[in-house]
Amino acid sequence: METETTTMPKENKMGVMPVNRLLITMSLPMIISMLVQALYNIVDSVFVAQINEAALTSVSMAFPMQNLMIAVAAGTGTGVNALLSKSLGEKNQKMVNESANMGVFLAFCSYVVFALIGIFFSRVYFALQISDAQIIEYGREYMFIICVCSFGIFGQIITERLLQSTGKTIFTMFTQGIGAIVNLILDPILIFGLLGFPKLGVTGAAIATVIGQIIAAVLGFIFNKKFNHEIRLSFKGMLKPDKEVIAKVYQVGVPSIIMQSITSVMTFGLNKILAAFSSTAVAVFGVYFKLNSFIFMPVFGMNNGLVPILSYNYGAVKIDRIKKTIRLGMTYAISIMAFGAAVFELFPDKLLAIFDASPEMLSIGCPALRIIAVSFVVAGFCIICSTVFQAIGNPMHSLIMSVCRQLVVLLPAAWLLSLTGHLELVWLSFPIAEVMSLLMSVIFLRKTLKHLDGLKAV
Predict the structure, then answer these.
(1) Given CB 3.0 to 4.6 Å as the disulfide criterion, which of 127, 195, 212, 442 pairs with 183?
(2) Is residue 410 within 8 Å of 351, Cβ to Cβ?
(3) Which residues of 333-372 are buried (b: 16+ CB within 10 A; e: fewer)?
(4) Residue ranges of E strands in 111-166
């Protein structure tokens, strides 16, 4: 492997390129790749729904575990991203390289934990949520594979974050896009037994997913090795855990992990609440998450472009560029979410029909989508605020917002509303929680902007 060098490259584009053009060039590849990810998430469920509703429900109930893996991977990646980009802004090449190597080391450690969970707790996980034997068996098969082979998703996410940290987001479009396309091609082949392959059903969906992730991870390592010359990955560096660097990574990463993991807790809890009404209600909730990914993923893609821009300019103390990036991020996010809300309000039946929705699913799903979509625009604002807090060293603000929104307000509100016996009222917990999140976002954003003004004065 290459020997470490102390020579810093010339000023990174994140510190000099016009902000609007920088945000677009940084974010657009991520938005495209995440739209492809959202597409294959939807198509995955569309194929599974053709097996039967029990199969669709089992995949929906596996979402909290999948989301937890992504939360750990992405949260760690966010910590690496923020530290690495900040170190680039500070011209600290040694910390840049150490951040990258520790990121890969931590991704591997995370994989080992989830592989063990998949081996020993797959059946227990589903049995805690529902008593239907068919759904439990489908779910056990699916979860076992996605956990034991999760080295693909962990490798994919950390290599993508390294590319994003130095502004090379175009390559992440290829890693995510190619991985998603592989999944799309393999899904019908393995689920339904086409082209001479055995008919594997839900197991086939899981295998297609992990193969796509593994291919994306391999491409990610190749792109970092060949094109990401601002960092130096070495096996020697990965095998020497640096407690100081790991602590700095998790200073941002742990709040991010907890914040994203809370979604898993909320989803797990809400699945139990909805299961008391019917398994179809659980399926509707799962379908909602698949559909909303098409709206939220572009915003999250833009966030992946925002983090290195904000962190770099924070390290370089370029406050005006930070504020302009925040304003533009808000504008784009709110516009995307407004479009998504309109689609959900006008065409809920058409969206559900994609999943071969039964009459019962339509009767439950149409009001559910319309009620939840009311909160989309507010959610866009809050998502950008959370990203700002993470990128410039205030991750606790994001964590507090997420805990309050999903655990203090949304889940208890859903439980209380479920006591009325009216399923449609349960969906009101989403806009109720978003109003609280908005209030907290405004308070924390004002505090953050005041802190930035203080830095500028110095």
Answers:
(1) 212
(2) no
(3) bbebbeebbebbeeebeebbeebebeeebeebbbbbbbbb
(4) none
Q: Which of the residue ranges 305-309, 364-368, 440-444 would you say has the lowest mean pLDDT? A: 305-309
Give residue 93's Cα distance to chain centre: 29
Which conformational region is residue 422 in: left (phi greater than 0), alpha (psi within -120 to 50 degrees), or beta?
beta
| Helix or strand run (H / E) with residue 404 | none
* Distance, CA of 12 to chain centre: 26
> How many beta carbons lie within 10 A of that of residue 28, not counting itself?
17
Rounded Cα–Cα distance for residues 366 and 375 (Å): 16
- pLDDT for the residue numbered 335: 94
28: amino acid identity, one letter:
L
Rounded Cα distance between 400 and 393, Å, is 14
Q: Per the structure block, which two tokens stand in for 34?
A: 């995440």
pLDDT of residue 14: 66
Taken in order 397, 398, 401, 404, is the CA torsion positive or negative?
negative
Task: Supply 332's token pair.
Answer: 């784009």
Q: Mean pLDDT over residues 190-219, rounded? A: 94
pLDDT digits (tens, 9 = 90+) for 315-349: 777 888 888 889 999 999 999 999 999 999 999 99
Cα 342 from Cα 239, distance rounded (Å):
50
| Lowest mean per-residue pLDDT among 88-102, 108-122, 175-189 | 88-102
Q: How high is the mean pLDDT of the chain? A: 87
Positions of E strands within 244-381: none
